[in-house]
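Case study 2.
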Amino acid sequence: MGSVEGGEKKALGWAARDPSGVLSPYSYTLRSTGPDDVYIKVICCGICHTDIHQIKNDLGMSNYPMVPGHEVVGEVVEVGSDVSKFTVGDVVGVGVIVGCCGSCKPCSSDLEQYCNKRIWSYNDVYTDGKPTQGGFADTMIVNQKFVVKIPEGMPVEQAAPLLCAGVTVYSPLSHFGLMSSGLKGGILGLGGVGHMGVKIAKAMGHHVTVISSSEKKREEAMEHLGADDYVVSSDQAEMQRIAGSLDYIIDTVPVFHPLEPYLASLKLDGKLILMGVINTPLQFITPLIILGRKVISGSFIGSIKETEEVLAFCKEKGLTSTIEVVKIDELNTAFERLHKNDVRYRFVVDVAGSNLVEEAATATN
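Prediction:
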């Protein structure tokens, strides 16, 4: 098929117009294209809790109209003249980042997600000055560096959550050397990221304790996800039982919460790894860290290399996400349910199977 270079390409998606976060059909022009670009027909796209922060301007830096979505799986329909990684017909994924400077230390270390000039897949501005828009749309144009191939045979709707939720868990386990069997890990919060944390950690041979705010997910965690233990964070006796027992805790909670109970659960040199986007200051008393040489760290998604690794890992281990597939006209309801934590455990939007074109074509830009 022809090159993506030159000429305008239109896209049809669902966009938020203001901080109400309500999405509706939207037609727009894709950014300028070049020889390294891949033109992708979107098949499906996962819904992440971060999408809520963005569409509602919770972080105070949203630009509208905004087409969210950064767990994108699609089919390559055209490629630029310098594209070497992909061919027409490949099933591929696009995550949170679609650009970087390419010359800083993080970029030269295959850690482009930490580049200070990273370009987000949506709610950002590309190098040509055009807004980036995400995966709740029929098409995207992305530089080949930020596209990954989906393993053959992996269902597309299962692959989508791995492009954010999956790699977000995998990256710190890899970076901190926490992939060997026999470790004891804690997963704080059992949502989209947390449920993948349980599955990936168990596949690595870890003893996994789920720490949750209530009893309601105990059966799900233990019987369906395979967790070894379940602790309600408000139960002081149960928290005391696991004190000093965990090598790490992956903290996925996206709202304010105290850190002391979880720091007390860590062993010597244990690590509390923060992943939730929280715009309220957290606090802790230093003796809990000093007297155990413990570490509080953050971790942000994962690199393209790590994304390829987690896709291969999940394919090898036969891991799947626990998902609920919805059509694009159910987006607003899905966001409302996600805000109430009413999903097991990740929504995936069936973009290709939705009536997006007909609906968006009649909408006002």
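The two ends are 30 Å apart (CA to CA).
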